[in-house]
Amino acid sequence: MTSNLPSLPSEVIEKIVAFLPLPDVCICMLVCKEWKEMFSSEQFSKNYVLNHYNFDDEEQPSGHLYAWSDPEEWFHYWDDNEDNSNVWVFSNPPKRWKCGIVHLASYSLVSDKQLKYKSFLRAVYILSRIKKAAEELGLDCGAWANEGSGLIETCLFPWDKDSLPTATDIISLYGFNPEMQKNPLVRGEGEDKDSGDESSDDEEDGGCVRWKSLSTSYDVDVKKAHAFFDWMKEIFSPYIQIGIGCDAMNPVPCFILAKLAPGWVGGLLSSLALT
């Protein structure tokens, strides 16, 4: 049967599809070769990510970024200078885009002339799913092993190496205080430098679902929580968890990171209250 509907110009089709959720865009790629090429192009990815996510920086720090900027919000175990000039976490504090992703203060999206938008879109989309799930499931970090709890942030930074960043890399990238650089907590990437031996399976305890250092609240849809963690296991394989300042401050900044897309490492950023 031949359709009598007039064909639309490709520019119009592209603008229409750009309003769809990303999973629906992927379905549109299955229609024909022309559509697959159109919707997997760098230009479409650029238009899509810039139209769907706000990459302006927040005017004032909030959440963890605010807490880490105020020495009254955390404990430190090193000697103060008389003027407290050595009481800080980051030499150049990270920033948060208005879409909710924490990024390095030194990174500028506008200035990145080598940016591959297709990879960037994939990474941002993954983090947006994590952020949404964190809100829906009451996700926090640190309840594992009674270490305390911390709400979830998402973070992202460029990374062109094959291996995941080490604790030394994270310390350098984020400019952590020298007082915080000893004895980082490191888990994952095939080696466990922490005394705990975490299971790779998610566990359920009275309606609370836990996986690694992540846990949900006690009133969530358990089936939905397991489905989310199953998805996380695929994305975060391999992963690395890094806590900075374990012997120097409390709570400590804690990262759970994976390669989200070519050229990008990101994941969860939280505070881990060590007792």
TrEMBL record:
Residues 182-208 are annotated as: Disordered. Residues 2-48 form the F-box domain. It holds the Pfam family F-box. InterPro entries: F-box-like_dom_sf, F-box_dom. Residues 191-206 have a biased composition (Acidic residues). This is F-box domain-containing protein. It comes from Pocillopora damicornis (Cauliflower coral).
